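Box S2. Input/output pair 1.
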Amino acid sequence: MRILLLGDYSNVHCTLAEGLKALGHECVVASDGDHWKDYPRDIDLKREQTFRGNISFMWRLLKAMATFRGYDIVQIINPIFLDLKAEKMFRFYDYLRRHNKKVVLGAFGMDYYWAYVNTYMRPLRYSDFNLGNTVRMDPPAVLFRNEWVGTPKEEITKYVARDVDWIVAGLQEYWATYNEVPELRDKMTFIPFPIKMPPAPVVESREEGAPVRLFIGISKGRSAYKGTDIMLEAAKAVRDKYPDRLELKIAEGVPFARYQHMMDTSDAIIDQLYSYTPAMNSLLAMSKGIINIGGGEPENYEILGETELRPIVNVQPTFESCYEEIERLVLHPERIAEMKRQSIEYVRKHHDYIKVARQYEELYNKILAPSRPPRGEEMASHNHF
């Protein structure tokens, strides 16, 4: 198959491309590298916010769009898959639709459905937009809600989601959210995020009395939204109480390669307070035998069919829960070796990039099968590229 993966979040598409290429498919990744994270890509669509940068971006984009034709599958990372205003996305999407066989949408992050459903329908006990029946009104949540609900971003999300051939959810909470939308349920599937395992991950023995090494990565402008501020506050409080038993390493706004290097010597990572499941950064850490303190709710294990491994230190979205779990790990370091071992096995079992690529391969073959009804023309009302 010829496959175009357009856009990237947290290295999802780049890693998936490696798996698909290993299976013999032709696969191209076109993205902006997820901004400052600078993930690898075949076609660079990064936009510098200067006059010359904007001119360069539009030239490269138009040149690239001329090659985005004749693919069996185009998978877009989000309804906003290019660094453009939502109003301009319709013509680029329609162009892809007209010149390629099938289009798949990733439910991998922020979009209208994620913001609306978790604000007003609340299928999750907690999320980026709700805590129980209480709607989050902290500034970042309000900002994202206002950005996606009742705006052109809502329009493009609905247009694309209803029009694509299939939607893939990468986390259990995205699966649960999209399943609240009746017209989308019949073209949805869950496929775990792909992780490329280290060549030979091993759990190194710890020295007697060595401090627990805790790592936290902070995304620019998203600390409060993702709960990193609360997790960091809890970690600092534990460190202050046990200065000889806990080391805390903080990475803020660093490129992906530097982030990995800083993380590699850690025992545990704290990440994603409001998540039910470990996302790409946490999974990458776990593949290296680093314990994840974050989202590990029962629903996460259920959707994977996992009944034995329990490597994740699950926290509730409160300071107290984070503090208690970090303190428990510090006071019981004898747990660390087994949790590291289970972390590696968990990622190998459910997220290995070749195994995940085979699941995508199966999905792509399914939607390319001639038995599927042809796409109607009723939604092609916008001007084409």
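Box S3. Input/output pair 2.
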Amino acid sequence: MMKSFTITKRQEEHITILEINGELDAHTAFKLEQQFKNLIEIEAYHIIVNCSNLQYIASAGLGVFMAYIEDIRNLGGDIKLSDMTGDVYHVFDLLGFPSLYDIHKNESEALSSYKNQK
């Protein structure tokens, strides 16, 4: 059975917000990978991934974040994460992601952190 996973993309000034919904695992990770590739192609390097509707993340999903964070930072951007549920944050925390990623309680806090970087 195909897992449910969707990505909604929207813009807030020069920042791209990806709302990820459902389960991010080996069967769905390619969708997020494609989004990151597309954003790099159009030189959209300021990204927020809103995880409020992310129900589950597997190692394959975490791998997508790891694969693109360095590239995007080297291009002068960042991938900021927001709105994680306790369970999803716990997975990120176990792997030490809070020291690697800019994780915010909510999207408006993540937006502010970009605006304060200018």
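Caption for Box S3: The mean pLDDT is 94. The beta strands are 5-12, 15-24, 46-57, 78-82, 102-104.
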